[in-house]
Design a protein that fits this description.
The structure is a homotetramer of 349-residue chains.
Chain A lengths: L12 H10 L11 H14 L4 E5 L2 H10 L6 E6 L3 H4 L4 H6 L3 E5 L8 H9 L9 E8 L10 H13 L3 E6 L2 H8 L14 E5 L9 E5 L8 H7 L8 H11 L3 H21 L5 E2 L7 E7 H9 L5 E2 L15 E7 L6 H11 L1
Parallel strand pairs in A: 2-3, 2-4, 4-5, 5-6
Antiparallel strand pairs in A: 1-7, 6-7, 8-9, 9-11, 10-11
Chain lengths: 349, 349, 349, 349
C-alpha cells in the first residue's frame, strides 16, 4: 500500500545485474569507461540521432545543469507553475545557472498550453532592465500526471524557437510518457523541437542515474566543465553507464514504465468507484491525483497506506477543495502489484 | 600493471554485497532510509562522538559543500599548494561557496607545515578590502602521499583556531592515512581539532560514496539546504547508506587501506632498486612518486604499465627534474596484487 | 512636457551645492569621511533611532544588497508582482544574494494586501526541497503610485515576522510616500516593522545616492563586506555623504517630494478632464497612470510629450485595455512646472 | 603632508565644472544622455579607434565586470601577485564572474615579466579537471609604481594571445602611466594587444568615474546586461559622462597625471637624501615606496604625515625588511604641492 513515490523502490533486477557485472575489473575513471560509451551509443540508437550525453546523480542537478547551458545569468526559464524545477529543487537552478530566473506560467489545465505561453511571450522584454526569456522547460510527464503529445510539444517548441528560446524537457518520467504515448522517443523530443532532454532513470528502475541528452551538440560545447564543476564527474562513472545499459536493454525501461502506467490506471479506476473519491486528472502516466474525504485519507493511512497530500494549486481550474476533503497523490512504480491496490481498496471499503 | 589511480577499481565484494542487499524492497527516499541511519550510527561509533553526516556522490562536491559551510563568500580557504581542491576540482569550491577564494600556501615539504601556515596568517587582513581567511583545509593523506600525524594536525589546527579559522580535512584517502598511522580515527580528526571531515570511500572500496562528517553540529545547521541545492539529495539515498555500512563493517575499510598501503610500500621498494629510479617522497600511504628516465617510463607503458606523469611543482624543495627524466605517480588500490608489481619490475629489467 | 521619469532631472540646487562644498580639500576615503558621518547622523535624526547606514550608487544595488543580508541563497523574497526588484532590476537580486529567489504575489489592487500575503504564506514550505520565504519586500510608494499607510505596513510586517520573514522596504520614492502620508519617517518604517529601508535620493533631488538603512544593527554585521564585494565601496565616499547632507537639510527632501506630488495631482486632475482619458490609479505620490486613446498618445508625443507605455499587468483588477487604447505612465519630479502640464493639456485639446 | 592615497582629493576644478554644467536640465536616463555620448566619442578620439565604453562607479566593479566578460566561471585570470584585483577587491572578481579564479604569479621585479608568465603557462591545463587560464590582467601603472612599456605589454600580450587568453588592463593609474611613458594611449593598449582597458579617472581628478573600454566590440556583446545586473546602470548616467568629458578635455587628465608624477619624483628625491631612508622601487608614476626606520615613520606621522605601511611581499626580490624598519608607500596626487613635501622633509630632519 506504498504509493508515496516511484523513488521508494530500489533498482530493477536487470539494472542491478548490470551494476554487478560492471563492477568487475579495472576501468578508466571519470566516465571514460566502456559502460558509459555503450550507454551513450544505446541512447543514440533509442533516439535515432547523434547525441551528446552526460550522466549525473539526480534529476535536480540534471535539470539545473542543462538549463545553465541554455540561459545566461540574466536570462529566464519559462515553465509551468507546477514544474518540479520551481517547486521541488530548492534554488538549484539559480545556483548552477549563476543566478538566472525561473518564470512560472500559471496554466490550470495541468500542462502548459500554447495560449498561456504565447501570453507570457507577448510582452517583449526591455533589455537590459528585465530578465530575458531564453529557455522553455517542459515536464514530460507533467507534475499533474499528464502527457504532452508530440503535436503539443511541437506547437510549444515552435513558439519558443520563434522567440529565441531553447527547449528543455524534464524527463524524470519520460519513460512513462513514451510508454503512454506509444510514439517513438525521437518523435516526442527532437523531432518535436526539444533541444535538451533530462532522461531520468532513477524513478523507473535505476538506483541513481540520470542522463542529460543534447540533441544539438553545439549546446554541449563547454558542458563537461559544468559537470565537473558541479561535482558530478564521478570517479567511477561506470556506475552510471551500467545502469543505463541495463535499463535500455531490450526495451526494459519501457516495460517498467508500461507496468507502472497500467497499475496507475488500475488504481485510478478502483478509486473512482469509491464513494467520495474523485479522480481530478486523467491518468496519462503513473500518477493518480484524487480528492477524498479527509476522514477516508486518515483511515487509509491508518491501515498502512502511504501517499502524499498535494498542493491545492495543482487542482484543475475552478476546482475548490472542500473543507473536509483532502487532495492527494498516489504513484505507482515498476514494482507496484495489484495486491497493494486491492489492499488499499479494502481499507477504503 | 595498472597504477593509474585508486578509482579505477570497482567496489569491493563486501560493499557490492551491501548494495545488492539494500536494493530489496521499499524505503523512504531522500536519505531518510534505514541504511543511511545505520551508516551514520557506525560513523559515530568509529569516531567515538556524535556526528552530523551527509552523503554525496563525489569528493569534489563533498569538499566544496563542506567548505561552503565554513567560509562566507568574502572569506578564503588556506591550503597546501598541491591541494586537490586547488588543482583538480575546477572551480567547484567557488561555485558552492558563492565565490569564496582558495589561497594556496607553497610548502615544498609535501605537506603544510606550521611555519608556512604561520607566515600566511602573519599579515592581518584589512577587511573589508581583502578576503579574510576563515578555513584551513588539510588533505589526509596528502597529495604527495604523506600523512599528517595527530600532533601535526593538532599544531596546525591550533594555529587555525587561534586565528578564527575552521579546520576542514579532505579525507579522500583518510582510510589509508589511518591505516598508516595506526591511531584511532578520533585522534587524527576532532581530537586534533578537525571541525569537518570529508570521508572518502570511493577511492578505497566503494563505488560512489562520500560522507561529510561534522564534528560540530552547529556548523551543520543549514547543511541539508546546501545538499539539496547542490543536487545531491539523492532520491534513493540507500545507495550511499548501504555502501558505507558495507565499507565500515568489521573494519573492512581499514583492511582495504592496509592492503593498498602494503602494496605501495612493496612497489616503492621494488622500484627503488631499479637503476635510474628515485623514490622522491616517503610512502606513508598508497601512492608512490618516483623520477625515472623518460625512456624507462616509455618502455613500461609500452609493456602495459599505466601511471600518470605528475606536476613538477609537486617535487620536493630544490629537486629539479632532469631533461631526460620523468616524474610519475603510481597508485595502489585495494585490489592491487603483487603479480602486477612483479610484472612491472620485469618490464623495467 | 517631459514626464518620462523622475530620474531625468539632475540634482536640486541644494544638493549640487553640497557636492561642490564637499569637493574641497582632502578627506578620508572609502566612506570614512565627515560628510558620510554627518549624513548618517542626520538619517538617525530623521528616523529618531540608531541606524547603520551604507551608501551605494543605484537603487538596484541597494535593494539587491539589502535583500542579500536577509535571505540565504536557498531562501525567497515575497513581493508584489509589479515590484521593481522583479521587473526592472534584471537578475541583480539573484546575483547579490547568491541565487535566492523572488516570489511575486499577484495582487491587482496596486499594492500588496494582507490577504494575498497570508495566502502566499499559507502553504508551509517543505524544506529543504522548496525555497523558504525569508523576506518580504514592500515598495513605498508602490509601482502603481500608491502609498502604504503605517497601519498597512504594520499589518503586513506582522504577518511577515510571525512567519520568520524580515521586512525590506524599497524606498526609491520613500520621500514621496512620506510627503503624501504626512506621517513621520519612523512611523512608516521601523515603528511599523520595517527592518531595512533602501532610502532613495536619486529620483528626488540627488544625482546618484542611495542609502541602505538598517534599523536592526545585527542585520548589518557583515554588510561592509557585501558593499565592498559589490564594488560599491566608493573611494571618494564623500560624494554620497554630501548629497545626503544637502538632501536632508531643512527638510529639503520632503519639500522636493511635496512639489512633485502636488504637480502629479495637478496633472492627474487636468488629464481626467480630457475626453477619453481615464486615470486608473489614485495619485498618492508623484506618478500618474492613465489610459487614453492611442491616437491621443501619439499626438501628445508628436507635440513633444515624453511618457512611457506601461505594462497592462499593472492595470487594476478586471480592467481590460481597449484595442485602440494605450496605458501610459506620467511622472512628475521636483522640477516639474505647471507650464509643462499646461503645454501637455494644450496639445491634448 | 597627506600622502595616503590619490583618492583622498576631490575632483579637479575642470571636472567639477563639468558636473555642474551637466546638472542642468532634463536628460535621458541610464546612460543614453549626450554627456555619455560625448565622453565615449572623446575616448574613441584619445585611443584613435572605435570603442565600446561602459561607465561604472568604482575600479573594483570595473575590473570585476570586465574580467567577467573574458573568462567563464571555470576559467582563471593570471595576474601579478601584487595585483589590486587579488589583494584589495575582496572577492568581487569571483562574484561578478560567477566564480572564476584569480591565479597570482609571483614576480619579485615589481611587475609581471614574460619569463614568469611563460612558466605559468607552461603546464597545460587538464580540462575539465583544472581551471583553464583565459585572461591575463596587467596593472598599469603597477602596484609597485612601475610602468610597463608598450614593448613589455606587447610581449606579454603575445604570450597571452598565443595561449588563448584575453588581455585586460587595470588602468586605475593609466593616466599616470601614459604621462610617464610619453607614448600615445593607443600604443600602450590595443596596439600592444590589450583587449579591454579599465580606464580609471577617480584617482586622478574625477569624483567617481571609471570607464570600461572594449577595443574589441565582440567582447562587449552582452555587456550591458552585466552592467545592469551589477547595479551599475546609473539612472543619471550623465554624472559619469560629464566627469569624463571634463577630464579628457584639452588633455586635462594628462596634465593632472604629469603633475602628480612630478611631485612623486620630487618627493622620492627628497626622501632619498634622508639618512636611513631607501627608495625601493623606481618612481615611474605617482607612487613612492621607501623603507625607513620605524622611529622616523612614527615621527613623521606625529607631525601630521599620512602614508600607509605596505605589504613586505611587495619588496623587491631578496630585500628583507630590518626589524626596526618600516616599509611605507607615499602617493602624490593632482593636488599635491611642494609645500607638503617640504613640510614632510622638515619633519624628517
Amino acid at each position: 500500500m506504498i504509493f508515496g513515490s516511484d523513488n521508494m523502490l530500489g533498482a530493477s533486477q536487470q539494472v542491478l545485474d548490470a551494476i554487478v557485472r560492471a563492477n568487475v575489473g579495472l576501468a578508466a575513471s571519470y566516465g571514460a569507461d566502456d559502460w558509459c560509451a555503450q550507454a551513450t551509443a544505446r541512447i543514440a540508437d533509442v533516439f535515432e540521432c547523434p547525441v551528446e550525453v552526460f550522466y549525473v546523480s539526480t534529476g535536480t542537478v540534471a535539470n539545473s545543469l542543462a538549463l545553465s547551458a541554455l540561459v545566461p545569468p540574466w536570462g529566464s526559464v519559462l515553465c509551468h507553475h507546477q514544474a518540479h524545477i520551481v517547486n521541488d529543487e530548492s534554488s538549484a537552478p539559480e545556483l548552477f545557472s549563476g543566478g538566472a530566473r525561473l518564470s512560472p506560467i500559471v496554466d490550470a489545465s495541468g500542462k502548459l498550453g500554447p495560449a498561456a505561453l504565447a501570453q507570457a511571450l507577448a510582452t517583449a522584454p526591455h533589455p537590459p532592465h528585465n530578465v530575458v526569456p531564453r529557455a522553455l522547460s517542459l515536464t514530460q510527464a507533467t507534475e499533474c500526471g499528464l502527457v504532452y503529445t508530440p503535436a503539443e510539444v511541437s506547437a510549444l517548441a515552435k513558439l519558443a524557437h520563434d522567440n529565441d528560446l531553447y527547449v528543455h524537457m524534464d524527463g524524470a518520467r519520460f519513460a512513462n510518457a513514451v510508454a503512454s504515448l506509444g510514439c517513438s522517443p525521437a518523435e516526442s523530443t527532437w523531432r518535436a523541437g526539444v533541444d535538451v532532454l533530462c532522461l531520468g532513470a532513477s524513478k523507473n528502475g535505476a538506483l541513481m542515474a540520470e542522463a542529460i541528452v543534447f540533441f544539438d551538440p553545439a549546446l554541449a560545447e563547454d558542458f563537461a566543465f559544468r559537470v565537473k564543476r558541479a561535482g558530478q564527474m564521478a570517479a567511477k562513472g561506470r556506475l552510471f553507464g551500467a545502469q543505463f545499459c541495463g535499463w535500455l536493454d531490450n526495451d526494459h525501461w519501457l516495460d517498467l514504465a508500461r507496468h507502472a502506467n497500467g497499475k496507475a490506471r488500475e488504481l485510478s479506476a478502483a478509486l473512482a468507484a469509491v464513494p467520495g473519491v474523485e479522480v481530478v486528472w486523467p491518468v496519462d502516466a503513473n500518477e493518480v491525483f484524487v480528492t477524498m474525504p479527509t476522514a477516508l485519507a486518515t483511515r487509509l493511512r491508518a491501515a498502512g497506506g502511504v501517499f502524499y497530500d498535494w498542493h491545492p494549486s495543482a487542482l484543475p481550474a475552478g476546482r475548490v477543495l472542500g473543507a473536509d476533503d483532502s487532495f492527494v497523490r498516489l504513484v505507482c512504480g515498476f514494482g507496484t502489484e495489484s495486491a497493494q491496490i486491492d489492499a488499499l481498496l479494502q481499507a477504503a471499503a
